[in-house]
Amino acid sequence: MFLSGLFTEFILKPLDSLNQEIIQCRKCPRLVEWREEVARVKRKPYRDQEYWGKPVPGFGDPQARILVVGLAPGAHGSNRTGRQFTGDASGGFLFPALHRAGFANQAEAESKNDGLVLKDMYITASGRCAPLDNKPTPVELNTCQPYLEREAQILQPKVIVCLGKIAFDRILKIFAVRNLKFAHGALYSIHPSREALILHPLHLICSYHPSQQNTLTGKLTVEMFDEIWKKAKECANKDE
Ligand code: SF4
Question: What is the pTM for the complete model shown?
Answer without folding.
Answer: 0.96
